[in-house]
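Try this one yourself first.
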């Protein structure tokens, strides 16, 4: 099979990450185009990673042969570019989140169904070994009945971050603040573990930044179809910046992932009653996470090397997409999966505005 030809729509910071991954996959993929309205940025990226520079995606589609368009622009522009690519007969990869509202994500989904092409939304942390371990444990019932989950993003972004791009922290192009931009990955992992969300309630505030339309702190609660409950916390106002944390709890076990590393894992054998096994508030010496250290040669447990971690995570998702193009696998993170995270976040924003819980469709 010939190499798959990729075009990047956008030449910003995240596009450079995609360029690194395409370099790693150069036996299967090649970067043939980079499109950005600031042509000098596109030219700089092509000098690093190859391909031709174009001032727009339309020019790239007209000027060279492309199989896959990777949308790496501000979130509020994702839909138009993805639909343009799909209508041109291209497969599409979209940086997270797919769009700034559920309705706009659904427009992309409708275009995908008309075009009959593959679409994946970047949620690279679903491919982290730690996430795969926890989600598989949930699937196998190792934690028993799920009771609660927590998604917490305790990060810091200085004022210079928001001032560095006129789209950052805006409703029109960012679609939200700390929860939509920084927190969407961890919210998505909460959905992957806990299942379909049905209701959300929350508060938002801007407490540590100026000239920002959207929140730098969001807190909320979510109810899942199973009856389990979840807690949400997303902030870019936690100095000096701590961790992104996912917690999954059930009546037979629990897991904690911090900064993509499995820091706690415990499941109770089916022939042991949990109340007979132990009781306490700290878990004692019950942590079983070490049994997963180095699984499949991929670092999992806290303390493992994080070198190349971000590239690896994107790489695993690209490998899945390329396998799907060959008909060997299904796309693991499509628009329907990402839609649920968007629904939670936009529902929380609506709840913060109205002061009432929001039912999720």
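Now uncover the answer:
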């Amino acid at each position: 099979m010939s190499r798959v030809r990729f075009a990047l729509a956008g030449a910003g910071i995240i596009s450079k990450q995609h360029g690194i991954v395409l370099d790693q996959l150069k036996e299967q993929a090649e970067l043939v185009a980079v499109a950005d309205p600031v042509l000098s940025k596109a030219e700089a990226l092509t000098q690093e990673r190859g391909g031709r520079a174009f001032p727009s995606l339309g020019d790239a589609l007209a000027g060279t042969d492309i199989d896959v368009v990777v949308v790496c622009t501000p979130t509020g522009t994702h839909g138009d570019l993805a639909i343009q690519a799909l209508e041109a007969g291209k497969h599409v990869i979209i940086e997270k989140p797919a769009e700034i509202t559920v309705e706009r994500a659904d427009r992309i989904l409708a275009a995908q169904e008309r075009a009959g092409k593959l679409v994946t939304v970047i949620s690279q942390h679903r491919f982290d070994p730690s996430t795969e371990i926890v989600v598989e444990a949930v699937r196998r019932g190792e934690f028993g009945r799920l009771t609660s989950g927590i998604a917490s993003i305790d990060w810091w972004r200085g004022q210079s971050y928001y001032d560095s791009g006129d789209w950052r922290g805006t409703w029109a192009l960012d679609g939200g603040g700390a929860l939509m931009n920084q927190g969407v990955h961890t919210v998505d992992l909460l959905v992957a573990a806990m299942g379909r969300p049905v209701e959300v309630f929350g508060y938002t505030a801007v407490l540590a930044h100026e000239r920002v339309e959207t929140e730098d702190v969001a807190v909320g609660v979510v109810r899942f179809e199973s009856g389990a409950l979840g807690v949400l916390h997303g902030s870019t106002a936690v100095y000096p910046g701590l961790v992104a944390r996912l917690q999954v709890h059930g009546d037979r076990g629990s897991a904690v992932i911090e900064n993509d590393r499995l820091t706690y894992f415990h499941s109770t054998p089916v022939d042991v009653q949990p109340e007979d096994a132990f009781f306490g508030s700290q878990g004692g010496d019950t942590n079983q996470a070490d049994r997963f250290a180095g699984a499949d040669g991929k670092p999992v447990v806290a303390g493992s090397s994080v070198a190349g971690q971000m590239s690896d995570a994107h790489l695993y998702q690209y490998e899945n997409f390329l396998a799907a193009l060959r008909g060997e696998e299904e796309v693991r993170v499509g628009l329907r999966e990402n839609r649920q995270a968007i629904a939670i976040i936009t529902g929380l924003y609506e709840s913060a505005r109205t002061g009432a819980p929001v039912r999720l469709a």
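Discussion: Confidence is low (pLDDT under 50) at residues 303-309. The chain has twelve helices and 14 strands.
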